Here is the input.
Amino acid sequence: MDDLDEELPVLSFAGPGDYRPRVHARGRDTAIGLAPAEVTEWYLVQVWPAPARDVAVLRQTDTYGASVRAR
Here is the structure.
């Protein structure tokens, strides 16, 4: 991650404690194993203070991710 254009934001805005993250990705099957000149994957990361809970996977539809999870 040495090529970031900007600093990553601080996600612990409410100080120490438990947080819940939500991560959304799209475009993961677009350029597998390639180094494209333009962005092909997009990510949305949301974090909010909340008590710890078990992981809940809402949807997994990418072919690349399925092949990695099957290993």
In short: The longest strand covers residues 19-26. Strands lie at 19-26, 42-49. The longest helix spans residues 63-69.
